[in-house]
C-alpha cells in the first residue's frame, strides 16, 4: 500500500477514528486503526467492539492495500506535522512496518495484520431516515446533560431515542434522566422514521456523534435496528450497539398539575445561581429559592464557609414558596435555554419542578427539589 494525503484531511480522518479507541486495551488490535486505500480514497476504521467509526478522505493512491497501525501514535504524528504538508503512508508487508513521510520527516511504525481487525457485522436496519444535522444536534445536546453515570442503572447510561405522541402529532423524541433531573426534547418526525424501534444510545456514542454534526444544513442518514444504530454523513459512518435494557416510563415523572408559574431571564438566573453557590458546600451544593410577588431571592447558607443572597426581579404572581435545589442541576438546566426567558412551574417544596423555554413545549426539563 502506498497512499498520499493532504495533512488537514488526514488529521480530520485520523482524529475521528482515534477518539473511539480505548486508551487501555487488553486486545492489541483494538488500539489500531485499519487503513484501507483504494481508487481515490483513504478509509480509516476504528472500533472498541461497541462503536465503530469509518472515515473517508480524498487520497492519491499509488498502490492499493490495507494495514493497521496504532491510532493514537499516528494521530500524534499527523497533528505535529506542519500545515499544508503532503503525507505519504507506505506499508511494507515484508518488514511489518508503515512508513509515514512528510517533507523531511520520516517515521516507521509497527503494524498488525489487517485480517485480525474486527469489523462490526452489518445488520438489517428496521428503519432508515434522513434528518438535518441541526435538528439531530439539538435533540442530543439538550438531553445529554441528564444522562446517568451510575453504572448499576445501565439502562439510564444513554439517551432514549424514540417516536412519541405530542400535542400536535407524532414526534422524534430524545429523553435522558438520572433520577434527579430529566430532559425531554422533541423534533418533527422525519419521513421514514414512523416505525423506528425505540433505542437507548450510549453516552460514548452521543459524544462521538456530536463531532459529525457541525454543518447545520448537512443531511444525516440514520438507520435503526433493535440492537444497533448508525449515523452517516457523506464522509463518516458511526455505528454503535445500543444499550440492551428497557428505559423507564418517564411520562410518570413529568408533572402535569404544577400551577405556580415563575418566568425569569434565563441568563440572569444562571449567573445569579452561579454567584450565590460559590459559598455552598461542595457536597450538597444546595441553593434556596424564595418566591414572592414578582421577586425571587436566591440564598445559600453553608455553616462551614459562609452565606450568600441575591434578589432578582421576576414574573411571579402565586402564593409565597420556598424550595431548594442542587445548584449544579439548576445551572445545567438553565444553560439549555436558547430563548431569553425560562419558565418554571412549581407545585410545592417537595414536588418535582418543570422548566420550559418560554412557551416552547418541544423542550421540557424536570428537576427534583432538595431539603435546605
Automatic annotation (TrEMBL):
Its transmembrane ranges are none
| Keyword set includes Cytoplasm | yes
Compartments annotated for it: namely:
Cytoplasm
One Pfam family from the record: DNA_pol3_beta_3
Q: Where is the DNA polymerase III beta sliding clamp C-terminal domain?
A: 252-371
Looking at the UniProt record for this protein, which Gene Ontology cellular component terms does it annotate, in alphabetical order?
A: cytoplasm; DNA polymerase III complex
> A Gene Ontology MF term for this entry?
DNA binding
Where the record annotates domain DNA polymerase III beta sliding clamp central, the positions are 131-249
Q: Name one GO biological process term.
A: DNA strand elongation involved in DNA replication
Ranges for domain DNA polymerase III beta sliding clamp N-terminal come to 1-120
Q: Which UniProt keywords apply?
A: Cytoplasm, DNA replication, DNA-binding, DNA-directed DNA polymerase, Nucleotidyltransferase, Transferase
Cited SUPFAM superfamilies: DNA clamp (SSF55979)
Which CDD domains does the UniProt entry name for this protein? beta_clamp (cd00140)
Principal subcellular localization = cytoplasm
Subunit architecture:
Forms a ring-shaped head-to-tail homodimer around DNA.
According to its UniProt entry, the function of this protein is described as: Confers DNA tethering and processivity to DNA polymerases and other proteins. Acts as a clamp, forming a ring around DNA (a reaction catalyzed by the clamp-loading complex) which diffuses in an ATP-independent manner freely and bidirectionally along dsDNA. Initially characterized for its ability to contact the catalytic subunit of DNA polymerase III (Pol III), a complex, multichain enzyme responsible for most of the replicative synthesis in bacteria; Pol III exhibits 3'-5' exonuclease proofreading activity.
Q: Which family does it belong to?
A: Belongs to the beta sliding clamp family.
What's the protein called, per UniProt? Beta sliding clamp
Organism of derivation: Roseivivax lentus
